[in-house]
Design brief:
The protein is α+β, with helices and mostly antiparallel strands and 307 residues long. The chain folds into 2 domains: 119 residues, D-amino Acid Aminotransferase, Chain A, domain 1 (2-Layer Sandwich); 173 residues, D-amino Acid Aminotransferase, subunit A, domain 2 (D-amino Acid Aminotransferase, Chain A, domain 2, Alpha-Beta Barrel). Helices cover 31% and strands 29% of the residues. The protein has 9 helices and 14 strands. Strands 7, 8, 9, 10, 11, 12, 13 and 14 form an 8-stranded mixed beta sheet that branches. The longest helix has 18 residues.
């Protein structure tokens, strides 16, 4: 297997190379006229490979196809993506055998302006150290108004709310703004006051109640998808595992007060995984730190079993 001496491995999907075409990540590969670069016209997915095994591949490919359909964008078949993912992971592990976590990104653009085919590739790179740390230490969050109401997705499908597109400038600007306020991340709210999502994550909250007879009930809640948020692959997988473990599940609508009243709040994503929220707008989350820590530990254990 060929090793690539670079921080990342790039494998382009190419009909002439069934397992993907490995290229030099240190050299230019994307045309300046590619519509992904000039207009952000494309979609992507990010997934985590642990010990060489990519997680939730079918869910990510399904969401990639859904996002592409919203853009009327033709993309390679799942089998081509799966082959390129395997190639990228193998090449990366040959070059960096000590890396136990690999971030794998699937990217596809409308291609060079005027071309008949899209540009599609897989990128493999190390898992960010900051994300790993935030899983343990937790994060501080600010709530920011996204500037549209929760019914906009139905009224204006051309805005592509709920699609994972390459147009992430607003999301990155929100994170930079949060950093100027001393926070790590953001939870977006709608103009009509509903909780939406993070720039790169899904919002979860939990309540734990103990009845007079000692029975413990745990309820895991996430915002409703009809508000135009991106369906979370990690949230969906965790809900399946939590239900099997006896948790009750709930789907919004949520308002900021629901977060502040919860026993625990998390931002969950495929790369950082489950990050506990310590403060929202400076207010401590969770009435009992021991309860919040126990809930986090249980969800982490459930999530670790997801493939």
């Amino acid at each position: 297997m060929t090793s690539v001496p670079a921080p990342a491995v790039l494998v382009f999907l190419d009909s002439q190379h069934p397992q993907g075409r490995i290229v030099d990540a240190t050299a230019p590969q994307l045309m300046a006229t590619d519509l992904g670069a000039t207009r952000g016209d494309g979609v992507f997915e990010s997934l985590l490979a642990v010990d060489g095994k990519p997680r939730k591949v079918p869910a990510h490919l399904k969401r990639l196809a859904s996002s592409a359909a919203m853009l009327d964008l033709s993309i390679p078949a799942p089998q081509a993506w799966e082959a390129a993912i395997s190639t990228a992971i193998d090449v990366f592990r040959d070059a960096k055998p000590d890396e136990d976590e690999i971030v794998v990104k699937l990217l596809v653009t409308r291609g060079v302006e005027g071309a008949a085919e899209p540009t599609a590739w897989v990128q493999a790179s190390p898992s960010p150290a900051l994300g790993r740390q935030q899983r343990k230490s937790g994060i501080d969050v600010v709530m920011l108004d996204r500037g549209y109401d929760s019914d906009l997705a139905d009224r204006a499908p051309w805005l592509l709310l709920g699609a994972k597109t390459l147009s992430y400038a607003v999301n990155m600007a929100a994170l930079r703004y949060a950093h100027t306020k001393g926070a790590d991340d953001v939870i977006f709210t709608s103009a009509d006051g509903r909780v939406l999502e993070g720039p790169t994550s899904t919002v979860l909250l939990a309540h734990q109640e103990t009845s007079d007879d000692g029975t413990v009930t745990k309820r895991l809640i996430t915002p409703q998808l009809d508000a135009g948020i991106l369906p979370g692959t990690s949230q969906g997988a965790l809900f399946v595992a939590a239900k099997a473990a006896g948790w009750e599940l709930g789907y919004g609508p949520l308002v900021p007060e629901d977060l502040l009243d919860a026993d625990a709040v998390w931002l969950i994503s495929s790369i950082r995984l489950i990050a506990p929220v310590n403060h929202i707008d400076g207010q401590r989350i969770g009435k009992d730190p021991a309860v919040a820590a126990a809930l986090t530990a249980e969800l982490n254990e459930l999530f670790a079993g997801i493939s």
